Amino acid sequence: MKQVTIRDIAEIAGVAKSTVSRYLNGGSVGKATREKIDRVIRETNYEPNQFAQSLKSKQTKMIGVIVPRLDSYAASRTMMGIDELLTEVGYQMLVVNTAQQTEREIEQLYNLAKQKVAGIIWLGTTVTKRHLEAISTIQIPVLLIGQQHDDVHSLVYPDHEAAYALGTQFTEWGHRNVVYVGVYESDIAVGQDRRDGFLKAFQESGAHVRVIQTTFKIEDAIPIGEQLASEAGSISLIVCATDNIALGVLKGLANRDISVPKDVSVSGFGGYDFTEVFHPSITTVQLPHRKTGEMAANMILQLLQGDTVAMKTFTNFELKVRESVDNIK
Amino acid sequence: MKQVTIRDIAEIAGVAKSTVSRYLNGGSVGKATREKIDRVIRETNYEPNQFAQSLKSKQTKMIGVIVPRLDSYAASRTMMGIDELLTEVGYQMLVVNTAQQTEREIEQLYNLAKQKVAGIIWLGTTVTKRHLEAISTIQIPVLLIGQQHDDVHSLVYPDHEAAYALGTQFTEWGHRNVVYVGVYESDIAVGQDRRDGFLKAFQESGAHVRVIQTTFKIEDAIPIGEQLASEAGSISLIVCATDNIALGVLKGLANRDISVPKDVSVSGFGGYDFTEVFHPSITTVQLPHRKTGEMAANMILQLLQGDTVAMKTFTNFELKVRESVDNIK
DNA sequence: AAATGTTGCGGAACCGGTTCCGCAACATGA
DNA sequence: TCATGTTGCGGAACCGGTTCCGCAACATTT
After folding, report:
1. Is A77 an interface residue toward B (CB < 8 Å)?
2. Does B328 fall in a domain?
3. Taking the C1' atom of C10, which residue's CA lies nearest?
4. Minimum distance, in Å, between the CA of residue A119 and any CA atom of chain B
5. CA distance A77 to chain B (A)
6. Res. B2 pLDDT band, cuts 50 70 90
7. Would you call A277 and B73 a contact, using CB atoms and an 8 Å cutoff?
8. Helices B17-24 and B31-44 meet at what angle, rounded to 10?
9. Is the predicted pLDDT of residue A1 greater than 60, yes or no?
10. Which bases along strand C come within 7 Å of a protein CB atom?
11. Deepest of A85, A188, A237, B316, by most Cβ within 10 A of its Cβ?
């Protein structure tokens, strides 16, 4: 199974290497030679060596995707969307994982550049000066998903707006004593925007909100649910920054035999599949992760072509009103 | 930001390209020149061009991973394990998605070979002659996860054994009227082994089992749950081939106000995170997906070194006895 | 018919590494 | 002291493509 090279083709067809190359890349080739080469290539199953091509062109048909975790629902869905679109147009996705370490994001930016990916899609959590520095030195189009920054093309979820919409709905339903379970502020989109959207809605209605901070892990949210169980009489609603946190809180409440939504309401954020099949089904905001992946792939391709792309694009969202939050008015 | 080449280094250091190359690859280089080159490389931040290297060596530091779906819990966890170990030893993971199409598995086998990956880890569903043909022609070590075949190195979950163990437990608890909700047989491990393990246990105890077939999708399992709700009096246990199916069935039962495990018991298979936090928590078998990924990475590396590796390796499993299945004896 | 433009094609250089070969300088053994 | 390793290093070829340049054959214009 030796690799067939362009020289082999040239020899068999009785032409020069350069002619074969021209044939492959759409240069001017006469009809007769075209047919000859065509036949030889077909017969030999010739496939150009990608390393030789990239060595010369300093480019690949790869788009790097930097993800904080491989096993997050949001990241998986987004990757699906990206992959689907990219394969359609003959590009490949190169996923690199940072295991939630900011330092590795920066490393990977440089690393992907070294591998000459055509573009980078970055599912970010924080944007620092060092990130920006990396992005500007590597000279490769970068598209940021999920966070925003004026100096980077970004595709963002309307976290603030969606949280505000959901919060407003809850206040209309009469919730006045609320606990918000959020995450650390270093994640701008989730830790700040999402929280602030909720707070704005509740403040406008004069509701009382207590903020609790946790992590993205389900386990860490369970004790919070257990603890809040004792206050089920005085609070009417627990708003969680992600569906996973909601899951943990619900578990904690169930451990203490608190019934949702009868004793207390609980909401999530994100729109993970299981929120619908959970019992009770969970009221949440659905974010279009998969479609966002497709959009991102499209945008990076446009950037590659040199088209101008809006620096900031918002995706849409959808309120999923389900069983876990009661209208108590 | 021009790329620094080995020639630049050679020129600045006043030596030949070949000497620099020897320095980089541990050939014989004198102390004085060694230091000179060392300094120049450090100062220029020189990084070898990977395409030029691969062009010559016909090899990369990449391991291809073929997955049927990007958003499956099992696949994600396995990928995490693979990635973690590979980055430790300086390899990279190249994930390719087949979107559950067998044809694309074969395509990707060839495609990855074209990209000169050092090895391939394949999360398989079916093994056909065409797969075997591909594997043998590409001449690259392949490690199959989740399915088994005598001609391919495989790392498999003890589906039959685990299902048998779980089934035996259930019969000991007195379940005699059982429905098994499985998937299509083309997936050998899940569709056949898992089912047969259960059936063996139930048959040994003389229990009556009805088999229903569905897909891997949660949505498809919901109507099954709804339909089985009407038989809650006559059946005591619904065994599901995967945790996702269990989720759907539970939803269907809840839609019909059937209480689990009071009216009927339900079990899953796989050990997904959410089975623990679901209410009621779901009795299932925990498969070590992440660790399996690490093992797979280790094994493929051994194959690369030419070490001999067992053709078939079984992972372990753990029964997770939780709330969703009652002891009715 | 001569001048000019087009088109098709081969040759050679180049991308940035690795490796083989051979030579010189030095160290070792007889 | 001479013959025989050993070590360090430079030169050149090679991996498999792409692209620039120039030449010849043919077509077009005046």
Report:
1. yes
2. no
3. A16
4. 16
5. 6
6. low
7. no
8. 90
9. no
10. 7-20
11. A237
pLDDT digits (tens, 9 = 90+) for B188-207: 999 999 999 999 999 999 99
Nucleotide nearest to B17 (CA to C1'): D10
Interface test with A, best of B46, B51, B83 (most A CBs within 10 A): B51
Is B221 within a domain? Answer: yes
How far are the Cα atoms of A173, A202, A226, A304 from residue A207, in angstroms, in the given order? 12, 5, 23, 48
User: Is the predicted pLDDT of residue A68 greater than 80, yes or no?
Assistant: yes
Q: What domain count does chain A have?
A: 3
Q: What mean pLDDT comes out for the span A128-132?
A: 96
Estimate in Å the CA A7 to C1' D16 gap, whole number. 8
Strand C at less than 7 A from CB of A49 = no
pTM (predicted TM-score): 0.93
> Which one-letter amino acid corresponds to residue A80?
M
Chain B residues 8 to 67 whose Cβ lies within 7 Å of strand C are 17-18, 21-22, 24-25, 46-49, 52-53, 55-57
Cα B275–Cα B277–Cα B280 angle in degrees, nearest 5:
75
Q: Could you give the strand order of the β-sheet that contains A119-123, starting from the edge strand earlier in sequence?
A: A92-97, A62-67, A119-123, A142-145, A153-156, A312-314
Residue B329 domain flag: no
- Tell me the percentage of chain B whose pLDDT exceeds 90: 92
In chain A, helix, strand, coil percent, each to 5?
45, 20, 35
CB B262 within 8 A of CB B233: no
CB contact under 8 A, B274 and A247: yes
| Span A146-165, average pLDDT | 96
Q: Report the pLDDT averaged over residues A229-258.
A: 95
Asked if A225 and A281 sit in the same domain, the reply is yes
Of B97, B100, B63, the closest CA to residue B298 belongs to B63
Is it the case that residue A309 has pLDDT exceeding 80?
Answer: yes
Residues contacting B141, CB < 8 A, separation 6+: B118, B119, B120, B153, B300, B303, B304
Q: In this structure, is the CB of residue A17 within 7 Å of any atom belonging to strand C?
A: yes
Instruction: Report yes or no: A127 and A149 within 8 Å, Cβ to Cβ.
Output: yes
CA atoms of B127 and B147, how far apart (whole Å)? 8
Residue A260 DSSP symbol:
T
Residues from chain A that touch B3, judged by Cβ atoms under 8 A, are 58
**Are residues B198 and B281 both part of a single domain?**
yes
**pLDDT tens for each residue of B213-242:** 999 999 999 999 999 999 988 999 999 999
CATH of the domain at B276: 3.40.50.2300
Distances (CA, A) of A152 to A79, A86, B13, B143: 20, 21, 39, 40
Print the domain residue range for A176. Answer: 159-286
How many beta-carbon pairs below 8 A join chains A and B? 94
Mean pLDDT of chain B: 95
Q: Classify residue B321: in a domain, yes or no.
A: no
Nucleotide nearest to B10 (CA to C1'): D10
Among A51, A94, A218, beta carbon nearest to B54: A51
Chain A nearest C-alpha distance from B100 (Å): 12
